[in-house]
Automatic annotation (TrEMBL):
It comes from Hyalomma excavatum. This is Putative tick transposon.
Length: 92
C-alpha cells in the first residue's frame, strides 16, 4: 500500500495510515468497545458495518463514491493509489 500523500496534513496522514491498517474508527470497532452505545449494524442498511463496508460498499450512503458494483479489487486499488485526490475520497 502507498504512504499518505506528501501534501497531507498530519491528521490526514494519520487517517490514511489507520485505513491501511484497519484501525480507522468505525461502527464495527466501536461496537466491540462500547457495546451499549454502538450497534453492530450499519445504521443505513443494517449490514455488518466493517471498515470496508462503511467506506466503500454501503449502497445507502450519500457520501461514498457512486459505485453500483464495488469490489475488493477496487478497494485495494484505491488504497494503493498515490494520487492525493483519490486518497482524500476515503478520508475526507
Amino acid at each position: 500500500f502507498r504512504p499518505p500523500h506528501k501534501d497531507f496534513r498530519r491528521e490526514q496522514s494519520v487517517a490514511w495510515r489507520q485505513l491501511l491498517t484497519n484501525a480507522y474508527p468505525n461502527i464495527s470497532l466501536l461496537s466491540k468497545i462500547y457495546h451499549a452505545t454502538y450497534d453492530d449494524k450499519c445504521p443505513l442498511c443494517g449490514e455488518h458495518p466493517t471498515l470496508y463496508h462503511v467506506t466503500w460498499v454501503c449502497q445507502k450512503s450519500k457520501v461514498l463514491p457512486v459505485n453500483k458494483t464495488p469490489t475488493p479489487e477496487q478497494w485495494e486499488a484505491v488504497l494503493s493509489c498515490s494520487k492525493r485526490e483519490e486518497q482524500l475520497k476515503l478520508i475526507d
